[in-house]
Request: fold
Amino acid sequence: MLCVRRRTGFGNSTLTNTIQGRLLPGTNNYLTNLKQVCSALILSAVMALPLSSFSTPSYANSSGGIMGKDNRIRVDSRKAPWTAIGRINMINGTHCTGTLISPTRVLTAAHCLWNAKNNSWMPANWIHFMAGYYRGDAVSSFPVVSYTKAPKYPAQGGAGPDHVNNDWAILNLRRPAEETLGIFTISSLSESQIAAIPEFPQIVLQAGYSHDMAQRLSLNPDCRIFGLNKTGRLLAHDCDAVEGDSGSPILQISGDHMTIIGLHVGTASLKGKKDKILKKYGVAVPASEFINFLR
Reply:
């Protein structure tokens, strides 16, 4: 079965309780239900669409990333495993989403760090990572001392192919995060999984601090990676994600563990004749683009 892949992540009790209590209330076996959902999607024969047909991803759209019905739900970011996801607050009033991948490093989108008002990169001391952010407070707050963008990200901000393909960055925290916050591990989709996406969509979750729910962590508990571009450098997904969700993790669950397999960076549109928008989709950088850099 190609919908999930086993990796090490959070321990059994924390994730099991969270999934049962938040994602599928009243259900005693999340994995069984996940397999049933996956089977239904496989039978629906969803086709992969080449991202070469998509418009340039939008980085600032407060509602354009809702894919039909809004399927986001609110989760308690003060409880594990969601404490490892946080709001990245910038001194200029903007925010994005980031995820702890080690006690001192946070994964996010590179474009979040570009200050379009003065056409320059934000100083690290403008940035704070708020782990488990909830209504103006955080489980723990961390000043950022430096950050590293993808090596191939252009020198200036923008939304061209080179920007989107390399839209990831690592924030370095001033002090190590408390062990109780947890971290998310990273894993790449296998070549066989990627090749099978047209017939076997990958079942994923996405969690971030959406602009229209900025005080609470919102979760897409059941969405899909359904396509990728010809080079395999970008993933198309149908998770509901808007401004503020940039840098949020695309998560995959197997058994009692979750890992990051991609990074949400924007929304794109599939266009038809006369540039008529046929469908909107989320765009994510696959973990294969940054996993080797982090090792």
The helical segments are 12-23, 30-43, 161-165, 191-196, 291-294. Residues 83-181 form a domain with the Thrombin, subunit H fold (CATH 2.40.10.10). Residues 1-56 have pLDDT under 50 and may be disordered.
